[in-house]
Write a structure and sequence with these properties.
By secondary structure, the chain is α/β, with parallel strands linked by helices. It has helices at residues 50-57, 74-77, 109-120, 126-129, 135-139, 180-191, 211-224, 241-248, 266-269, 276-289, 308-320, 347-359, 379-409, and strands spanning 82-85, 92-95, 124-125, 150-153, 157-158, 168-169, 195-200, 229-233, 254-256, 295-302, 325-330, 364-367. The protein has an eight-stranded mixed β-sheet with strand order 3-4-7-8-9-10-11-12, sandwiched between helices. Strands 1-2 form a two-stranded antiparallel ribbon. Strands 5-6 form a two-stranded parallel ribbon. The longest helix is centred in the last third of the chain and has 31 residues, at 379-409.
Length: 410
């Protein structure tokens, strides 16, 4: 059995003393002392950047907080204000957006529902793609029947490049979604709208320009919601009038095609494949093939540099092809890549042209700085006109049937 080894100790060693245990609360000592704050150089401030200058010269937080409206004299309300922007030494003067063109930020239950449905069904709207200033007004109606959305068919990429439009462009956009007509009809029937506007990008890459796709969408909408009124804002189909006829005979109620501007400015404003005379032929054929049943509609932007005489001539040409409705709106530059605004037209001038259009025989004219071709300002009137025409049509059919019955009995 092993024995415990004896512990040996030197005879002259000092007595053993226990090592004191350090308290856990005692501070730890460091090998180096803390540096003197006065001896440490403070970090140099970062140099100012152009972004900081732009941020400091931009709007303050109070600019985004709604304030009660102030009533200004007419002379001040219509005055265009300027401001200097940019870094020191490189400031430039810009023209502020006039007060009559300012719109609220969209925030409404109907707006949020429509946007959620659009994303869920992979649908696009010209309201979003073209950055329409009326989106909060049109999508945020007090009820579903008052809300209006302009569905943009055939994707969000156009094959043309007009200098006023912010829609994406490409020579080879993605192929058409074969389920889009069904999804569009389903979404519109779900919203319960009384009036809907359909538009599309130009698809010059397709043999028919997308006319068959457009017509199919209209027919499916009428199948799911027969009482819904449908307005189609179409392209010119590269001048192929047979495609115009296909869409005009698909069951829609209003055929719209925009001339956009006066004839003299068309080459500078629209894509080179578009033309003022070509647009007139589209509107004329749509009216003729429907035997006058369709309402035809067009839109003109002001503020591009047009003259009064040019506007008069454009309106005269539109009346020659029996266009029923015309709208006037202010051109607003989407981005710096697009053509500049020549002038901001005052509300009084818009009202003047509205009255002139009515005097020339147009059935209706919506005219104002924020009016767009599919703005809901005129749709209540159009709806009433269409319902009145439908009633007259049914009455005429009933009378004709009664006459036929009387003649057969005789």
């Amino acid at each position: 059995m092993p024995t415990k080894a004896p512990q040996l100790r030197c005879l002259y060693a000092p007595p053993l003393t226990p090592i004191p245990r350090r308290s856990p609360l005692s501070s730890r000592t460091f090998a180096t002392a803390a540096p003197d704050p006065s001896a440490t150089d403070r970090p140099k401030p970062r140099p100012r950047t152009t972004f900081q200058d732009r941020l400091n010269n931009g709007p303050s937080f109070s600019s985004f907080i709604p304030t009660p409206p102030t009533h200004l004299p007419a002379s001040e309300a219509l005055e265009l204000r300027t401001a200097l922007v940019g870094p020191a030494g490189k400031k430039k003067q810009i023209t502020r957006l006039p007060e009559w063109l300012r719109t609220p930020i969209p925030d409404n239950a109907n707006y949020k529902k429509i946007k959620a449905d659009l994303r869920g069904l992979n649908l696009h709207t010209v309201c979003e793609e073209a950055r329409c200033p009326n989106i909060s007004d049109c999508w945020g109606g007090s009820d579903k029947a008052a809300a209006t959305a302009t569905i943009m068919l055939m994707g969000d990429t156009c094959t043309r490049g007009c200098r006023f439009c912010s829609v994406k462009t490409s020579n080879a956009p993605p192929p058409l979604d074969p389920h889009e007509p069904e999804h569009t009809a389903e979404a519109l029937s779900r919203w319960g709208l009384g009036y809907v506007v359909l538009t599309s990008v130009d698809r010059d890459d397709l043999p028919d320009g997308g006319a068959a796709h457009f017509a199919e969408t209209i027919m499916k909408i009428k199948q799911k919601a027969p009482h819904m009124l449908v307005e189609a804002l179409t392209g010119d189909y590269a001048g192929d009038l047979a495609m115009v006829e296909k869409v005009a005979l698909s069951g829609l109620d209003v055929y719209a095609h925009n001339v956009e501007t006066v004839e003299e400015l068309t080459p500078m404003v629209r894509d080179r494949r578009a033309g003022f005379r070509q647009s007139l032929r589209v509107l004329e054929r749509a009216k003729a093939v429907s035997e006058g049943r369709l309402i035809t509609k067009t839109s003109i932007m002001l503020g591009l540099g047009e003259t009064e005489e040019q506007l008069w001539e454009a309106l005269r040409e539109l009346r020659k092809v029996d266009v029923d409705l015309v709208t006037f709106g202010q051109y607003m530059r989407p981005t710096k890549r697009h053509m500049k605004v020549y002038e901001y037209v005052t509300p009084a001038t818009f009202e003047l042209w509205r009255q002139r259009a009515l005097d020339m025989g147009f059935l209706y004219c919506a005219s104002g700085p924020l009016v767009r071709s599919s703005y809901k300002a005129g749709e209540t009137f159009i709806e009433n006109v269409l319902k009145k025409r439908a009633t007259q049509h049914h009455t005429a059919l009933a009378e004709a049937a009664a006459d036929v019955g009387t003649g057969a009995s005789i």
